[in-house]
Amino acid sequence: MRRVSEIASFHAHVYFDGPEEEAAARALREGIAARFGVRLGDWRDGPVGPHPMAMYQMSFAPELFGSLVPWLMLNHSQLRILIHPNSGDERRDHLADALWLGPPLPLDASALAEERIEAEPPGEVNTTPTLAP
Ligand code: ZN
Q: Ligand 1 centre and the CA of 16: distance in Å?
């Protein structure tokens, strides 16, 4: 059995397509920043790496999973979100061991490392939450 301690961090990738979803994604990003200590990644207007659609990512510590993920479940509206562990096995983390909110999207597996990599830590928090989840 694998151990939970293999998970150094989680990512949540918020995808959007078209102006309506983009507006919802922007509102969700502000809602996250106001409530959770995460590392918010760059806004991407098109596909990048294995991600087939415009999106942004947040990186967060495993301790936050129990509050952030339920909050995303209740607040993602029509947006699709991929939540995956970072355990050092990119392929498995993204393709086999991930959760989706909303219908899953096909990821480009060729952009994911075949070999084990160092599991990515959550990174420095760049939000200053002031609201309760
Ligand atoms: Zn990711």
A: 15
